[in-house]
């Protein structure tokens, strides 16, 4: 990863979790998205009393990066500050991440202990992604 260590990315995700707005679940999450230009875009989860309107940290980071004109990503780290085990991205986040990131992009996630983390890829988190097949011409006539 271009001069950015996994530990640095996890620390940035942990820092981002401090900005979590989670008055209902108290489940703080931060994400750090490493962009191709070396910038790290961070975000936190933002809850709503109507839980379906809650925005996860991962989706917040992707949307924030896109709104900054950054569309090429190298890695994503996710930190869950209230879990004693690594917590993976939810299905909605996996869908959004796969929309904008290459299947080979590394994804790291942890609970409170950033050294106890899972290291995987977008493709491993979201196998059989139809968008990847469309991008590769599988569905072209």
Verbal overview:
The chain is of the alpha+beta class and 141 residues long. The protein has one domain (6-135): Cytidine Deaminase, domain 2. It has helices at residues 6-17, 57-67, 91-100, 122-125, 130-135; strands at residues 29-35, 40-44, 73-80, 106-110, 117-121. A 5-stranded mixed sheet has the order 2-1-3-4-5. Strand 4 (106-110) and strand 5 (117-121) form a beta hairpin. The chain starts with 5 loop residues before the first helix and ends in a 6-residue tail after the last helix.
Q: What attributes characterize this protein structure?
A:
single chain, 141 residues, alpha+beta, Cytidine Deaminase, domain 2, 5 helices, 21% strand
Strand content: 15-25%
Strand order of the largest sheet: 2-1-3-4-5
List the uncertain runs: none
DSSP strand count: 5
User: What distance separates the N and C termini?
Assistant: 37 Å
Q: What's the number of domains?
A: 1
For CATH, the homologous superfamily is named as Cytidine Deaminase, domain 2
Order of helices and strands: HEEHEHEEHH
CATH architecture title: 3-Layer(aba) Sandwich
Main sheet record: 5 strands, mixed
Continuous helix count: 5
Shape: globular
| Average pLDDT reading | 93
Q: In CATH, what is the class?
A: Alpha Beta
Structural category is alpha+beta
| Percent in helix | 25-40%
Briefly note the CATH topology name. Cytidine Deaminase, domain 2
Task: Using the CA coordinates, give the radius of gyration.
Answer: 15 Å
């Amino acid at each position: 990863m271009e001069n950015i260590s996994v530990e640095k990315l996890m620390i940035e995700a942990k820092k981002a979790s401090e900005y979590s707005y989670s008055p209902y679940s108290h489940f703080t999450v931060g994400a750090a998205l490493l962009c191709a230009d070396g910038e790290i875009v961070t975000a936190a989860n933002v809850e709503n009393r109507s839980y379906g309107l809650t925005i996860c940290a991962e989706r917040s980071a992707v949307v924030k990066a896109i709104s900054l004109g950054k569309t090429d990503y190298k890695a994503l780290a996710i930190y869950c500050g209230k879990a004693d085990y690594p917590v993976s991205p939810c299905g909605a986040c996996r869908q959004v991440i796969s929309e904008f990131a290459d299947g080979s992009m590394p994804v790291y996630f942890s609970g409170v202990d950033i050294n106890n983390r899972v290291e995987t890829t977008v493709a491993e988190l979201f196998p059989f992604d139809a968008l990847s097949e469309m991008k590769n011409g599988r569905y072209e006539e």
